[in-house]
Structure formats: structure tokens, C-alpha cells
């Protein structure tokens, strides 16, 4: 009672000034403060509302509410908040008065941002009381409720922008949430304001509560929406509908005019807002998501793409809640999820690309189920194999943007990797590059982790699947990348070079890791890839020779320019002339260098700029990179410094130079040049490390290090200059035969050009002599070769000579024969007197006899080089071949010519007799099948090797060449394959006559598709090269091919049978089909629109000749010639009609090879042969039917005239022409032929990497192939 009387006295204090009773402002402030303090302490349960009515009326007086004094208004508002608390849930004011009170509250809130405000505490009190009492619910019942709500939100969001103290944010957010909850209608501007502030990109830190930096407006909107999800969801849907209505009617969405553009722009805004709303409060889109899901099936492509992208962004958005955004979406909108997944197969390429681009952000989210990962992986893999380039490119960029660890964990599988691998051969450059760089980076990541022993997380893959994936990562990827060099595309080759040195075998200062990476790379390469890798290093060897000249020219030019600058007045004409000469020489050098560079990157200009800079420091650094005697660190640092210097625009600028080159161009070109020429792999440091691995028998890389040493000896033998003594020690200590051979081969290749650096230790020389006598055949060969590199080793050679000769059955081994063969090749003088005995022994006692027991005859189908050591008898025979070949190659006098004919005849006999020259008897056991296969193979290869010697080539007839063709049709695949490889190698190098060229087409019936495909690729490559030189060698080979087919035993057998049997037509058709397969291989690889007339002319000329074997009469051989020639004519005509080519009269004249063709001199007889048709019409019909069968030819064709009807006018006058060196004569040395247009650059030229045998590599001439630009 006392308390009530006390606060009554306080509350009864006058606060309204009148004329009679004016209250000073200071006094009024004190009274209001006291009233506010008193009201704040009164409990609602203890108070009677009637006691406060008068006070409430006074507090609501305009004299207080509109008072100019801020303090008066603040204390009045504090008191009013408590009046509302005491009168709750009703208010003791009229609606208009209450509305004014709330407006005053909002005005007070405007000062909350400034904590230094003198009435800040009162304003905080007002906010707190309103929230505690929920006074804002009264607004909903006021007539101007919408205006008040708008005013409240406007005030609070402006305040948020100014910086509301963080401790007040929850109070303000609760007030706003309560207002929305109680309001019957939310004004449009308030809804717009809430959504505008809610739409903050999910990547913005404050949006996902990732930062201490606050975003008050966002927090307000989020709190309001979270507290009123259902209501706000309706308002969001309504808001988006109004946005569309504001642009254009929804019925016009299908239009393509301005209405559609406006609607689409509004739709984009809606989707953008939806994406960001989803990230924070997906429940707000409960009504909208159905519409977006329906848009996935829209007929309009742009709308489908927009919906696809939007849902993808929603799935990838970072959630501020407990579960991931993807998981929430799938559980809430299963139908939309299923439809979105199908967009990877949408009819529109743009939509498929959009889908692929959204997968990676989704994968970056933390929580994804196994099923979701599988579905995303399947869809992305499908995009990688898409028919559209844009989709494939987008998918490639998507997977490359993933960190390797994430790809391994979430996407890596055998199927996904196998989908990327084919893209390395894409015609589209960007797709190809993305795939190559992605795979190489993945390989680098895997190898790096594997060598460090770190665990790699492959996600849900099982053990078997992981094993397959690891095989792809460690082996298939490097093999695929390196084999891209076979495409012979300059840009592709440059890309392979970059990834080889930066990803496959990257720079690393740790020598152990560096060498382990190199060994692992080489170990996992297959034969084709190793050939490519070795070819890259061989290319470096050639390029270094040119770069040495470049460096010399650059140094000379820089010094010459420096001298001229110092002595401008005394500069002589000779000095200027030297500079001009240097510039001319340098131009030719640079042209040679950039010939292998891709176009469009200003290669010539960049390398020329490097030269014209006259920077001796750069020149010296370049010299360091191509010095094999420097260590790894020096080479690496030199490369690094060069690239750093040319990266500076100022350092590459030349005064007065009009051509502007960017630093990027300089870097790209010089990086490629340095990678191709520098000793990055095979430098002094690395070679020493590899030799250490080779010496360590327990090392994981012991075997592969031996192989790498062998390769280094082939490409960079000078690198062993600092390690020659170590090599000698390793040879002496070597216990393993293969290791010993590898080291001997390495030392020989080093010593033949660096004999002065060979170790001269007498014990080592004696060890070599002992190897020649007691070692294997290969050891003996290399031991003799190494000894021959020394100037004075007569003692060792005499020891070998005395220990081996004379040959005898009881002591002579294959090693002895091989040693003598090598001494013969090196023309050891003492052997001359022993030759007759030696040759008699190897021919009569080794080749013509089989000195082994029946148990030793067990052999496989074919004996490879690695198995020879186990077959001593066969090895002796093969070494005897080498001895005979070396003897002929060492011939210097014409008196020894008979040896040539006998040797050629002997090798021919081995081929003709199927590898058997041992006469059958009770004493001699027949040669086993595996031996015979190897013997006929080596006999054929020996003939090819001898054909490189001019004196031997003259004695090799066409019949002998034709016998070699039997090896290309041998029953054993290895015989066919190795014969073709030898033939291809010698023809590629032009070391044998073009008379052998037609043999490559004798693979027409080859059952092995790989071998047949390789042959066709090589022919295409050769044709491209010859075509560029306007050389018709392959075209003229058709005459020899026709002759060979006509004299083929099977063809002649079919023809003979058709003449003696009742079913003659069938046999004749079989004969022509047999011949047709050879001709089709020829036409598939040689025939083009620009040379078909020449081919038609050549086969037409055949009818003006007879077989040279019987030049006076028309025998069966000549008739068969005409039959095959007519068949070739028919096929050329068919091909021309199919392709739409025009057969024109060839303007030149060619005579056919005189060693197999004899011209018909009788005019009437020639006319008779030309006029006669040798293939009957019914046979022609059968042949066309055969060609029309699937797989028989390239394409079906329309009916054409018969050969007789299509025959053009023929020249019948026959004249002889003087023969050229190859048996051809022509009254026109060359005929200009326009090169055909191709759809792809890659088809214009192929590259063939030849894998030479070790013996052939060793016998390669020491003379360098000097370029002609000096």
C-alpha cells in the first residue's frame, strides 16, 4: 500500500505545460525520467490500469511526442513502452494516437547505431521492452498497419546499414519476425526488402557464418524468414509472380520477340534469387521449386538451360544448416532431381554442357552418398563421350578444375579414366589439351604420393577396381600421352613435350625422387612408348648439334657487334660482310629449328629476337643447357634464369625494332626449345645416379636402370665421359650376362667417338679379350668392338685370334664365330689368310649340318633373340650369317666378287627351302621348325642388309627380291612382322633400291590386323613425304606389284586350274579376288585424285610389254601380266567412280622397269594385245559383287560401264626410252601434281618411329648428318 501511494505521487506529477503552469525543459526531463524509472519497476500483476490512464493520456500528448527536445521524446517513449506493458494485451490509446506512438518508437530506433548518443540507453530500453511485451502485435490492428510495417522495416534495415550493435541484433530480428507473424498482410515493398537483403551470394563469407564480420540486414531477413517460413514462402511465390507479370504476361513466354526477352530477363532474376535463397532457407522455395522443376521439361531451350543451371547451383550451394544442400534437395524434390540428372542426355548440346559445368561444384560439397556420386559420375562420363565438341570441352574443363585428391576420392574409376584417354587424340585442340593436361597432372599427383608412401583415398572402389585404376594411372596414362607423337601434329607434339618435362618426369632437386620418377616412367612404358621416348632423346641429340652452331653464331655476332660499336669509325667493310654472312647463316639455322614448332606462336621471330639481343649472358646460359658434362643443378638453373630474363618485357626489347613480341610468346617458344635441347634427363648428375642404381643388385630399379643406360649410350654417349672408369669396373664385376652385355654396349657406344677417354687399364683389356673367347656371342662381339676403339691392342686381338682359330667342331662356339665376324668387319689383317678355311667351316660344318641330339631339337614356333643363348646350334648358324655378311661388307677388291654371288645364292636357298639347307640323311637330323623360321628370317634380313652395298645390289635380281616376299607371307607371324620392320627401316632411310618398295604391298592377305594397319600407316607416311617432294616412287612401284602378283604361285595356280577344269569361271574369279586384295592395299594407301590418272597410265602401259623372261613370244607369264594389269585398271576406274574423281590422260610418258619388262616391238602385236579384253564380262560382274559385300572395299558405288565400254583411246605407238638408274625412263623428269585437300592436318603426314636392333645401332655411321645451313 505504501509502494502504491509512493508511485502514485510520482505518476501524478504534472508533465504537460500550460499557460498557467509552465514546466521548464530541464524540470520536465527530470519528471519524465523519474516517471520512466518508476514505471519500469512496476509489476503488471501488482498494478491497476485505472491508476495509469491519466498518465497514459498525458504521455501520449503531442506536446511530448512532438517535443523538439530529444531527451523528452526518449523518456516519454520509455514510459509509453511500460504503459503498453501494464495495459497489455490492450492499449489505452486511440488507433490514431497509437499509430503516432509507434512512429515515435521507430524514430527513436534510428539512433541505435550510435552508441555515443546520450540517449542510447533509453533507445535500447524502448527496443527491449517492445520485444519483451510483444507490443508490435498491436500494429496489426491499426488502420495504417501496412504503412507502419513498412516504416519499421525501412528504419531497421537503414539502421542495419549504418551498423547496429551486435547485441541488439537478436532483439531487432525478433521484433521484425513478430511483426510479420502477426500482420495480416505484408506490404510488397517489405517483401522485396526482405528478399533483397536475404539474397546474398552463398560464397560471401558472412552469408554462411564463416566470418566475424556481420551482415545485420541479412541476419534480419534470415530471422524473419525462419520464423515465418510458410507465410514467407507464399509471399516469395507471389513476389516472383509479380516480377513476371511486371515484365510481360506468362502466356507470351513462348514468343521470340521483345515480350519473351523481357520475361526471360525477369526469369533470370527469379532463378538467381532462388539459388541464393536456397542456400540459406530452402523451405521458402516450396512453391517455386515445382515450377523450376517443370521448366526442365520446357520446349524452350533457353528456359531448360536456365533451369538446369539453377538447379545445379542449388545442389552445389553451401548450406548453413546441418545437412548438405544436395542431400536436402534430393530428399525434398526427388522428381526434379531425377529430371535434372537426365539433362546430361538432353537434345540440346548447350544444356548438356551446362549440366556438365555444374557437376564439379556439386562434387565439391562435403556430404554426398555413394548413389549420388555414382549418378553424377555416370552423367559426367557420358558428357566426356558426347558427340558435341562443346559438351566434351566443358566436361574436360570440369574434371580438370577438380583437385586431383577430390577426383581420386569421388570420380576416379576405370570407366571414367578410359573415357578421358581417347580425348587425348581429339581433333579439337582445346579438348585435346585439357585431356592431356588433366591426365598428366593426375599421373604426377599419383606418382608423387606413391613414392612418398602416402595413402591415396579412392573412395568406395574395391580392391580389384583400385588395382585396375592404379595400372591406368601409372602405365596407361604415360603410354597414351607419349604415343600421341605418332600422330605427327606439331602442336600436339609440343604439348607432349611440355607435359613430359613438367608432369611425367618433372624437375625435382631431390636426386633420389627425380631418378625414381624417371625409372618408374620408363619401366611402365610399352614398346611403342619407349620407342617414342627414345626418339625424343634422339631428336635432342640432333637438335643439340644445330644449337651448338646457333650458340657459336650468336656469340660471334654479339662480339662482332660489340667491336663495331667500339670502333665505329674504323669499322671495315670486311667486318660488315662477316655480320651479313652470320645473319644469312643464322636465318637458315632458325628455319631448321622452328620447322618442328607449331604455327601461330611467332617461333621464328622469338628465336631471332634471342639472337639479335646480343646478350652474352643469355648465350652462355643457353650453352650450359646443351652441355652434357654439366650437372643437373646447373642445367636447371640455366633454364630457369633464361625464362626469367625473357619474361621481362624490357629485357627483350630492341631499340628501333618495329616487331613487338610479348613476353608470353618468348617464354612459350624458349621453354619448348629448352625442353627439346637441354640435357634435363641425361646429364652428368642423373647418369651417375642411374649407374648407382644399376650397380645395386637389390634396388627396385636395377633392371630398368640397365635399360636406361643402354638408351643413354645410344642417344647421349658423351654423357659417360666422367663415368668411363666406373663402367669398366662394372663390366669386370658384372655377374649377370644381360647386365654385362648392356654395360659392354654402353662402353662401346661411348668409346667409338671418345676413344681417348676409354679406360686403359691392362687388366680391363685382358678381361675384354677373355670375354671374346669365353663369353656369349653378344659379349664377344662387343668385346672385339671395344678393343678396336683402342689404338694399340694388338696383344689382346692376337690372343683372341690364337685362341679361336682355326675353327673346329669340338671347340668352336657361337661366341668364336661372332668374334671372327666382328674382326672380319673391322678388316683384321691376319684373317685374310684364314678366310677360305673359315668360310668352308661355317658353310659346310655349321650351316649345312645339324650337330645336335634329338632331345635338343625341341623348340617353339619361333626363337627370339632373348632365347638364342639357350639354342647354341641355331646361334652358331646365325653368327655364321653375320660372318658372311660382314665379309662382303668389308670387300675392297673386285677379285672377291664371286663371294658375293655365292653368298646371295646361299641366303636365297634358305628362303626358298623354308629355312632348311641340311640334306636329309640318317646321320643328319632335320632342322626343327622354330630354327627354320628364324633361319629364313635372318637370311632375308641379311639379303636386305647386303642390298645396301652397291656391288651386291647389282647382283640381286627380281627373282631374289620376289623370294623375300615369301617371308612377308610366311606362316609365322614373327617372321612376317620382323621382315616388314627391316624392309620399312631400310626403305625409310633410302639405303636400299626402290626395287624393293613393292614388297610392302604383299601384306594384302595379312591375317594380323595390327601388322596390316602398321604397314598401311607407314605407306601413307611415305607417300606424304614423297608427294611433298613431287616424287612418284610409290606410283611407279605399281608396275613391279603387277608383275609380282602375275608371277605369284597361288594366282598362277588358280589361273591354271580354270583352264583345265569344268568350273573355270569360279577358279578365275578366285584368282582375281586373290590378286584384288593386294591391289586394294595399294589403292587404299596410294591412290588419290591427283595421281589416279598416273596409276591408270602405268597399268595401261603393261599391255605394251612382255615379261622379260620371254621377250619374243606371248607366253602365259605375259598373259597373266595383262590379266592383273586389267584388274588394276578396273579397280582404279571403280575407285574413281566411287570417289567422284575424273580420270584424265596423264601428260607424261614412262617406261616400265627393264629388268622385268620387255617392250613389244611389233606394232600389230602391240595393237592386238591392247585391244583384247582379258577379264570376261561375267567375271567383272562377279568382282563387282564381291566389292559390294561389307568389308570388301571402302564404299558401295553406283553401277558403271563395263571396262570395254569405258576404255579410252590408247596410244599404240611404242617407243623405247633411255633407262635411268632404277630401270625407268621418262621424257619428263617430273610432273607437277596438286596436293589434295585434306579435312585434317593430322592426315597429311605420319611419323614412324623405327626400333633398330642393337647391332644396327652400333653399326650406324659415325659421321654426323651435317645440316646444309652453315
TrEMBL record:
Membrane: is it a keyword of this entry? no
The record's annotation in Pfam families points to: PDS5
**Entry keywords, A to Z:** Cell cycle, Cell division, Mitosis, Nucleus
| Basic residues composition bias: residue spans | 1235-1245
Alphabetical list of SUPFAM superfamilies matching this protein = ARM repeat
Q: Which domain of life is it from?
A: Eukaryota
Principal localization reads: nucleus
Q: A GO BP term, please?
A: DNA repair
What are the start and end residues of every segment in region (Disordered)? 1192-1270
Against InterPro entries, the record matches this protein to: ARM-like, ARM-type_fold, Pds5
Check the record and name the PANTHER family matching this protein.
ANDROGEN INDUCED INHIBITOR OF PROLIFERATION AS3 / PDS5-RELATED, PRECOCIOUS DISSOCIATION OF SISTERS 5, ISOFORM A
Q: What's the protein name?
A: Sister chromatid cohesion protein
Q: Which organism is it from?
A: Australozyma saopauloensis
| Lineage of source species | Eukaryota, Fungi, Dikarya, Ascomycota, Saccharomycotina
Amino acid at each position: 500500500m505504501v509502494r502504491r501511494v509512493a508511485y502514485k505521487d510520482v505518476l501524478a506529477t504534472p508533465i504537460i505545460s500550460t499557460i498557467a503552469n509552465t514546466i521548464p525543459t530541464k524540470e520536465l526531463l527530470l519528471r519524465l525520467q523519474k516517471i520512466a524509472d518508476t514505471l519500469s519497476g512496476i509489476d503488471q500483476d501488482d498494478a491497476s490500469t485505472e491508476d495509469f490512464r491519466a498518465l497514459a493520456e498525458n504521455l501520449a500528448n503531442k506536446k511530448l511526442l512532438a517535443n523538439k527536445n530529444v531527451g523528452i521524446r526518449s523518456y516519454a517513449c520509455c514510459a509509453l513502452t511500460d504503459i503498453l506493458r501494464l495495459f497489455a494485451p490492450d492499449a489505452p490509446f486511440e488507433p490514431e494516437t497509437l499509430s503516432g506512438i509507434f512512429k515515435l518508437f521507430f524514430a527513436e530506433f534510428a539512433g541505435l547505431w550510435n552508441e555515443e548518443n546520450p540517449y542510447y540507453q533509453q533507445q535500447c530500453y524502448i527496443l527491449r521492452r517492445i520485444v519483451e511485451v510483444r507490443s508490435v502485435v498491436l500494429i496489426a490492428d491499426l488502420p495504417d498497419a501496412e504503412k507502419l510495417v513498412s516504416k519499421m522495416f525501412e528504419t531497421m534495415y537503414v539502421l542495419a546499414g549504418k551498423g547496429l550493435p551486435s547485441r541488439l541484433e537478436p532483439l531487432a530480428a525478433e521484433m521484425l519476425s513478430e511483426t510479420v507473424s502477426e500482420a495480416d498482410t505484408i506490404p510488397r515493398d517489405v517483401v522485396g526488402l526482405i528478399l533483397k537483403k536475404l539474397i546474398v551470394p552463398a560464397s560471401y563469407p558472412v552469408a554462411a557464418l564463416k566470418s566475424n564480420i556481420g551482415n545485420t540486414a541479412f541476419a534480419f531477413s534470415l530471422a524473419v524468414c525462419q520464423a515465418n517460413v510458410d507465410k514467407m514462402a507464399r509471399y516469395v511465390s507471389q513476389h516472383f509472380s509479380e516480377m513476371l507479370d511486371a515484365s510481360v504476361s506468362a502466356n507470351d513466354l513462348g514468343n521470340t520477340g521483345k515480350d519473351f526477352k523481357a520475361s526471360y530477363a525477369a526469369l533470370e532474376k527469379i532463378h538467381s534469387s532462388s539459388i541464393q535463397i536456397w542456400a540459406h532457407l530452402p523451405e521458402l522455395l516450396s512453391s517455386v521449386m515445382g515450377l523450376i522443376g517443370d521448366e526442365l521439361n520446357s520446349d524452350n531451350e533457353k528456359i531448360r538451360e536456365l533451369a538446369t543451371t539453377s538447379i545445379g547451383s542449388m545442389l552445389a550451394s553451401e548450406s548453413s544448416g546441418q545437412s548438405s544442400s544436395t542431400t536436402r534437395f534430393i530428399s525434398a524434390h526427388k522428381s526434379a532431381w531425377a529430371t535434372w540428372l537426365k539433362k546430361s542426355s538432353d537434345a540440346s548440346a548447350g544444356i548438356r554442357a551446362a549440366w556438365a559445368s555444374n557437376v564439379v561444384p556439386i562434387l565439391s560439397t562435403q556430404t554426398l552418398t555413394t548413389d549420388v556420386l555414382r549418378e553424377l559420375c555416370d552423367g559426367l562420363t557420358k558428357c566426356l563421350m558426347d558427340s558435341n565438341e562443346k559438351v566434351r570441352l566443358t566436361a574436360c574443363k570440369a574434371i580438370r578444375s577438380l583437385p586431383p585428391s577430390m577426383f581420386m576420392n569421388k570420380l576416379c574409376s576405370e570407366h571414367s579414366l578410359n573415357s578421358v584417354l581417347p580425348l587425348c587424340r581429339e581433333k579439337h585442340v582445346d579438348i585435346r589439351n585439357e585431356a592431356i593436361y588433366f591426365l598428366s597432372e593426375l599421373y604426377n599427383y599419383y606418382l608423387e604420393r606413391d613414392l612418398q608412401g602416402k595413402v591415396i583415398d579412392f573412395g568406395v572402389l574395391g580392391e580389384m577396381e583400385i588395382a585396375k585404376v592404379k595400372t591406368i594411372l601409372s602405365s596407361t596414362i604415360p603410354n597414351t600421352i607419349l604415343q600421341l607423337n605418332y600422330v605427327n601434329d606439331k602442336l600436339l607434339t609440343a604439348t607432349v613435350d611440355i607435359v613430359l618435362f613438367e608432369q611425367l618426369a618433372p624437375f625435382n632437386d631431390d636426386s633420389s625422387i627425380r631418378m625414381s620418377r624417371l625409372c618408374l616412367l620408363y619401366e611402365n612404358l610399352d614398346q611403342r612408348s619407349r620407342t617414342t621416348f627414345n626418339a625424343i632423346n634422339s631428336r635432342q641429340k640432333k637438335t643439340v648439334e644445330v644449337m651448338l652452331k646457333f650458340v657459336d653464331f650468336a656469340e660471334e655476332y654479339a662480339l662482332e657487334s660489340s667491336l663495331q660499336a667500339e670502333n665505329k669509325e674504323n669499322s671495315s667493310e670486311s667486318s660488315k660482310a662477316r655480320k651479313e654472312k652470320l645473319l644469312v647463316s643464322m636465318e637458315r639455322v632458325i628455319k631448321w629449328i622452328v620447322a618442328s614448332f607449331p604455327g601461330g606462336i611467332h617461333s621464328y621471330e622469338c628465336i631471332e629476337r634471342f639472337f639479335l639481343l646480343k646478350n652474352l649472358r643469355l648465350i652462355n646460359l643457353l650453352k650450359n643447357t646443351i652441355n652434357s658434362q654439366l650437372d643437373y643443378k646447373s642445367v636447371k638453373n640455366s633454364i630457369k634464369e633464361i625464362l626469367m630474363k625473357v619474361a621481362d618485357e624490357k629485357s627483350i626489347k630492341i631499340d628501333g625494332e618495329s616487331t613487338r613480341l610479348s613476353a608470353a610468346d618468348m617464354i612459350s617458344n624458349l621453354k619448348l626449345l629448352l625442353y627439346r635441347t637441354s640435357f634435363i634427363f641425361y646429364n652428368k648428375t642423373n647418369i651417375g645416379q642411374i649407374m648407382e642404381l644399376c650397380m645395386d643388385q637389390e634396388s627396385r630399379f636395377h633392371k630398368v636402370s640397365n635399360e636406361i643406360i643402354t638408351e643413354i649410350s645410344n642417344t647421349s654417349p658423351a654423357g659417360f665421359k666422367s663415368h668411363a672408369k666406373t663402367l669398366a669396373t662394372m663390366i669386370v664385376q658384372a655377374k649377370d650376362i644381360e647386365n654385362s652385355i648392356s654395360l659392354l654396349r654402353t662402353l662401346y657406344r661411348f668409346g667409338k667417338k671418345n676413344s681417348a677417354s676409354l679406360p686403359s687399364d691392362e687388366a680391363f683389356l685382358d678381361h675384354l679379350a677373355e670375354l671374346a673367347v669365353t663369353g656369349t656371342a653378344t659379349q664377344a662381339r662387343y668385346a672385339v668392338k671395344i678393343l678396336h676403339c683402342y689404338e694399340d691392342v694388338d696383344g689382346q686381338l692376337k690372343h683372341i685370334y690364337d685362341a679361336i682359330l682355326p675353327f673346329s667342331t669340338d671347340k668352336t662356339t657361337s661366341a668364336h664365330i661372332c668374334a671372327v665376324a666382328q674382326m672380319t668387319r673391322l678388316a683384321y689383317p691376319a684373317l685374310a689368310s684364314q678366310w677360305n678355311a673359315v668360310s668352308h667351316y661355317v658353310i659346310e660344318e655349321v650351316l649345312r649340318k645339324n650337330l645336335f641330339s634329338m632331345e635338343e631339337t625341341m623348340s617353339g614356333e619361333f626363337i627370339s633373340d632373348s632365347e638364342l643363348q639357350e639354342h647354341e646350334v641355331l646361334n652358331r648358324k646365325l653368327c655364321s650369317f653375320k660372318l658372311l655378311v660382314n665379309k662382303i661388307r668389308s670387300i675392297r677388291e673386285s677379285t672377291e666378287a664371286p663371294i658375293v654371288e655365292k653368298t646371295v645364292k646361299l641366303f636365297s636357298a634358305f628362303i626358298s627351302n623354308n629355312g632348311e639347307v641340311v640334306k636329309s640323311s640318317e646321320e643328319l637330323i632335320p632342322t626343327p621348325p622354330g630354327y627354320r623360321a628364324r633361319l629364313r628370317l635372318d637370311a632375308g634380313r641379311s639379303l636386305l642388309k647386303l642390298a645396301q652395298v652397291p656391288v651386291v645390289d647389282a647382283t640381286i635380281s627380281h627373282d631374289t627380291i620376289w623370294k623375300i616376299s615369301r617371308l612377308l607371307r610366311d606362316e609365322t607371324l614373327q617372321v612376317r612382322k620382323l621382315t616388314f620392320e627391316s624392309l620399312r627401316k631400310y626403305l625409310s632411310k633410302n639405303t636400299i633400291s626402290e626395287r624393293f618398295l613393292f614388297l610392302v604391298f604383299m601384306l594384302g592377305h595379312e591375317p594380323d590386323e595390327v601388322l596390316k594397319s602398321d604397314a598401311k600407316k607407314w605407306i601413307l607416311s611415305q607417300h606424304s613425304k614423297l608427294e611433298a617432294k613431287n616424287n612418284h616412287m610409290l606410283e611407279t612401284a605399281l608396275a613391279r606389284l603387277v608383275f609380282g602378283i602375275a608371277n605369284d604361285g597361288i594366282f598362277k595356280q588358280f589361273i591354271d586350274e580354270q583352264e583345265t577344269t569344268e568350273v573355270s569361271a569360279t577358279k578365275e574369279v578366285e584368282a582375281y579376288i586373290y590378286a584384288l586384295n593386294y591391289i586394294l592395299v595399294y589403292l587404299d594407301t596410294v591412290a588419290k585424285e591427283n595421281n589416279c590418272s598416273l596409276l591408270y597410265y602405268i597399268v595401261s602401259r603393261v599391255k605394251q610389254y612382255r615379261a622379260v623372261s620371254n621377250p619374243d613370244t606371248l607366253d602365259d607369264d605375259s598373259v597373266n601380266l595383262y590379266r592383273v594389269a586389267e584388274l588394276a585398271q578396273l579397280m582404279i576406274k571403280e575407285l574413281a567412280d566411287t570417289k567422284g574423281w575424273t580420270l584424265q590422260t596423264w601428260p607424261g610418258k614412262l617406261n616400265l622397269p627393264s629388268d622385268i619388262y620387255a617392250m613389244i616391238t611389233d606394232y600389230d602385236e602391240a595393237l592386238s594385245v591392247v585391244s583384247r579384253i582379258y577379264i570376261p564380262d561375267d567375271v567383272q560382274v562377279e568382282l563387282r559383287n564381291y566389292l559390294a559385300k561389307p568389308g570388301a572395299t571402302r564404299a558401295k558405288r553406283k553401277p558403271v560401264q563395263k571396262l570395254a565400254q569405258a576404255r579410252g583411246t590408247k596410244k599404240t605407238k611404242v617407243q623405247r626410252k633411255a633407262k635411268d638408274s632404277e630401270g625407268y625412263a621418262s621424257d619428263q623428269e617430273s610432273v607437277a601434281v596438286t596436293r589434295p585437300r585434306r579435312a585434317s592436318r593430322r592426315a597429311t603426314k605420319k611419323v614412324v618411329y623405327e626400333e633398330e636392333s642393337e647391332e644396327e645401332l652400333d653399326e650406324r655411321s659415325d659421321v654426323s648428318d651435317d645440316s646444309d645451313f652453315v
